[in-house]
Write a structure and sequence with these properties.
Blueprint (H helix, E strand, L loop, with lengths): L2 H18 L2 H6 L2 E5 L2 E6 L6 E3 L4 E2 L1 H27 L1 H8 L8 E9 L8 E10 L3 E9 L8 E8 L3
Antiparallel strand pairs: 1-2, 2-6, 3-4, 5-8, 6-7, 7-8
Helix pairs in contact: 1-3, 3-4
């Protein structure tokens, strides 16, 4: 393998390990697709995620958790990616599956815009501002059309040392 292919394989493996390291990601079966430094979260539909069987619609708590997971994973991935690119001991730790502590949620606001239907959902986080200690993010979740989000999150997160 050439250097670029090795680097991409290492990044894919690190993202898979980071995703699996979070128990709630495993519980919801959330997966992440990566394009450069941008992550797209995927929440597969399951019947047990339905909160209102009359519509049917995804439970609001599942949607809120999915948005928060997406924000936390984007921040954690940004840290991991920077460490991998810098090399050294921290990069070796990440290659071994040991990651820096996850960011902590300070506060979030979730806006529910329309019901989440019984189908796969997607989300993407955008870091609005990242300081040394606190980051502010905006996350949108959608299903078939990204321009028709089902929910949005705005939140502040404490970055761990």
């Amino acid at each position: 393998m050439n250097g670029l292919a090795e680097r991409e394989a290492a990044r894919a493996q690190a993202l898979a390990r980071l995703t699996e390291a979070v128990p709630y990601n495993r519980h919801l079966a959330v997966r992440f697709d990566r394009l450069g430094d941008e992550l797209t979260a995927r929440l597969p539909f399951r019947d047990d995620l339905v909160g209102n069987p009359l519509l049917p619609a995804l439970h609001g708590g599942v949607i809120g958790a999915f948005l928060e997971i997406t924000a936390l994973m984007q921040l954690a991935w940004d840290q991991a990616l920077a460490a991998m690119d810098a090399g050294g001991d921290t990069a070796a730790e990440i290659a071994a599956g040991r990651f820096p502590p996850m960011p902590k949620t300070v506060d979030i606001t979730v806006d529910y815009l329309r019901p989440g239907r019984p189908r796969e959902s997607f989300a993407r986080a955008r870091v609005q501002k990242a300081g040394r200690r606190v980051a502010h993010l905006h996350v949108e979740a959608w299903q078939e059309e990204r321009l028709r989000p089902i929910a949005m999150l705005r939140g502040n997160f404490l970055m761990q040392d």
